[in-house]
Amino acid sequence: MSDDTTTAPHDAAGLARYVDHTLLKPEATRADVEALIAEGVALGVYSVCISPSFLPVEVPVGLDGAPALLVATVCGFPSGKHRSEVKAAEAARSVLDGAHEVDMVIDVGAAKEGRFADVEADIAAVRAAVPAPTVLKVIIESAALSDEEIVAVCRAAEAAGADFVKTSTGFHPAGGASVHAVRLMAQTVGGRLGVKASGGVRSAADALAMVEAGATRLGLSGTAAVLAGVTADAGY
């Protein structure tokens, strides 16, 4: 299964290939996760993103023997205020339990204090625990950071070997993704890393604006409604 988000989506099916279909609510049940996977397969999304305690999960396999979608999980979620070795252990266990991708949260306070070397070391610890081919995404909580801090954290993520930078957990009171933050993150990583827009992306217009700004992946919980809003006259 390949990540084919190198060109702009032209329809709902194309946009679906950008989507990590997400369920991270604390009250989620195993039945909810099973429904999420079934819906994700029906919608044709790239992956589902679930809490690590639900791993492992069963995913349907296509005629080619490949999974119908990939499985992503989170690490150090949602505060990022975990010791690096704890994040690394959590990520490693998730991969053993079948996760293909891990979305880790940085220590946002360290970034606010300008301790970007510490941010890099935190990311590097998780990267070492889950080397390629596992995809590592770094959640930076862009709404809580200044532009200068966003740039510095993205550079730290790249230096530490991450595959993506991601805007938000969706749980921070400062807010979720913004077009401005996505554009700045995309400009900073220059195509060398992917950019995931997540948090508050609730409409087709929101999703397409994020892609236009440089997002190569979208974290959506209301995926069906977003894809239903993509119409032939939307300009894509």
From TrEMBL:
One of its GO terms (molecular function) is deoxyribose-phosphate aldolase activity. It is found in: Cytoplasm. The active site is at D103, K166, K196. One of its GO terms (cellular component) is cytoplasm. Keywords: Cytoplasm, Lyase, Schiff base. Pathway: Carbohydrate degradation; 2-deoxy-D-ribose 1-phosphate degradation; D-glyceraldehyde 3-phosphate and acetaldehyde from 2-deoxy-alpha-D-ribose 1-phosphate: step 2/2. Signal peptide: none annotated. Belongs to the DeoC/FbaB aldolase family. DeoC type 1 subfamily. Catalyzes a reversible aldol reaction between acetaldehyde and D-glyceraldehyde 3-phosphate to generate 2-deoxy-D-ribose 5-phosphate. This is Deoxyribose-phosphate aldolase. It comes from Cellulomonas oligotrophica. The gene is deoC.
